Amino acid sequence: MLFTKKQLAAIAPLTIPYSDKTRLRVSHAMTYWKEFCRSSSSEKQFLASVDRNNDDGYSLRTGTLATEDHKELFHFSQAFFNRLAESGRMQNMVDGRTRNFLYAAGALIENMAPMVMRFANDVQWALDAQSFSHEVSVSKPHWTLRFLHYLPTSASRDIIAHPHPDRGGFSLHLNESSPGLEYLDELGEWHAMPMSHEATVLFPGMGLQYRTANRMRALCHRVVGTPGTTGERYSMVAFIPLMQTPYCDAAKVPRLQDLPHGFNYTISLKDLEKMFSPR
Phi/psi zone of residue 132: left (φ > 0), alpha (ψ -120 to 50 degrees), beta? Predict the structure, then answer.
């Protein structure tokens, strides 16, 4: 086993070392994301999101609320790539940087699968989470890479991404261009995430907290500004959904950023269940 029951239950991030090939795939994907960000607006809009609640593809967000980030992002999943291929839109892409980016993202998802499944197996056996590995596996078409580019108006702020737990199953922070990613412990203190180009940082989301009946807690995290983020910031995260588990419903809780930091560390299972809806 990679992780023990005690490690899985701790309110702290977990780290999984990269294989040489995975480290290379992560580096390639980040390089091509940066190049895609320099593409024309028309090329980006060709892959723009249509529905924010199902927002595969590119989007630019410049919200006005104090807790909203100013960023451009891209959500990539195998299901999204398959839809692009089936629609014939791949043939209409003019900029080779776009194709390079999409193929690099697809290669990364395939290459990180053993790492994801190793963690899923540990959760299943250590916490007696029946059929968890199977659920993670069948959800693979919807594993989502989120590529982020925080714009200078966001990257220069004291708080770049406001504190929140993720809604989905679990998350892997694959690459950060600058330090500043932090997590909140059970005592209310902030700590730097152990980010490295040699390993991924993994932690539960609300979905995994629900799936394990509070035995694992979604990790509250944030991104703070540092001297290296005065201009812009890039990051890459993988979200692993649990497609056979009820979901943390945005209709019931619109913005987790607006709740008390670490609210879910002490929440009862009864109150947790009120935040979820069946798929």
Answer: alpha
Q: What is the 3-state secondary structure (H, E, C) of 80-117?
A: HHHHHHHHCHHHHCCCHHHHHHHHHHHHHHHHHHHHHH
Task: Write the pLDDT tens digit of every residue in 121-166.
Answer: 999 999 999 999 999 999 999 999 999 998 775 544 678 888 999 9
What are the strands, taking DSSP E only, across 177-224?
181-184, 190-192, 199-204, 221-224
Residue 274, amino acid:
K
| Amino acid symbol at 2 | L
CB 264 within 8 A of CB 178: no
Q: What's the pLDDT tens digit per position in 243-260? A: 999 999 999 999 999 999
* Cα 239 to Cα 168: distance, rounded to the nearest angstrom: 7
Torsion of CA 209, 210, 212, 213, to 10 degrees: 110
Between the CA atoms of 191, 199, 15 and 237, what dihedral angle is there, to the nearest 10 degrees? 70
Q: How confident is the model at residue 97 (pLDDT cuts 50, 70, 90)?
A: confident
Residue type at position 120:
A
- Using CA atoms, how far apart are residues 102 and 90, in angstroms rounded to an integer? 10
Cα dihedral value 8, 9, 10, 15, nearest 10: 10
The CA distance from 7 to 4, in Å, is 5
Measured CA to CA, the distance from residue 35 to residue 223 in angstroms comes to 23
Token reading at 78: 């195998």
pTM of the predicted protein model: 0.92
